[in-house]
Design brief:
This protein has 7 helices and 4 strands. The strands form 2 sheets. Strands 1-2 form a two-stranded antiparallel ribbon. The longest helix has 29 residues, at about 85-110. Strand 1 and strand 2 form a beta hairpin. The protein has helices spanning about 35-40, 55-60, 85-110, 115-130, 130-135, 135-140, 160-165, and strands spanning about 5, 10-15, 20, 30. The chain is mainly α and about 170 residues long. Helices cover about 45% and strands about 5% of the residues.
Length: about 170
């Protein structure tokens, strides 16, 4: 069973799925779904469309350089079947897949490292701004530490104002 890659979004295309487009110069383009085919016909660049693998790799959201990617490369040279080699290859594929998953998790953890502190700062700021929504009004009246300090302002006597007008 041959699994192809979508030319636009780099997802896998299983047999019997997708669309194949052959250009006049005999270059073959395979697409996983009509969304990718339509974007290709509109001459969109996959590196500028946010949901593609090319965009994610270009902007540091997915891993770009890793030795495990070399095993996924397509090889067109036919190999003579040997049961022992096939068995060892299947074992190696499982190990390589586990290594790649671990490295992807580590990459994701490094990307999200500073996000938690930023979210905590934003949450504290929002809580500070809208404490009146969290605390009940009776609690605010009972304990003045929850509210902002009140400032007393001197107001002139209204009778003096009348005398000044006359």
């Amino acid at each position: 069973m041959r699994l192809e890659k979508c030319w636009f979004c780099s997802s896998t295309i299983y047999p019997g799925h997708g669309i194949q487009f052959v250009r006049n110069d005999a270059k073959i383009f395979r697409f996983c779904r009509s969304k990718c085919h339509k974007n290709f016909k509109m001459k969109r660049n996959p590196r500028k469309v946010k949901w593609t693998k090319a965009y994610r790799r270009l902007h540091g959201k997915d891993m770009t350089q890793d030795s495990t990617f070399e095993f996924e490369r397509k090889r067109n040279r036919p190999e003579r079947y040997d049961r022992n080699i096939a068995e060892n290859t299947l074992k190696a594929i499982k190990k390589i897949d586990k290594v790649r998953v671990d490295r992807e998790a580590k990459h994701h953890a490094l990307r999200m490292k500073g996000k938690k502190a930023k979210e905590q700062r934003e949450a504290a700021k929002e809580l500070e701004q809208s404490i009146h929504m969290v605390k009940a009004p009776t609690a605010l009246q009972q304990e003045p530490s929850f509210t902002l300090p009140k400032v007393k302002v001197q107001v002139s006597n209204p009778q003096e104002n009348r005398l000044m007008e006359e």
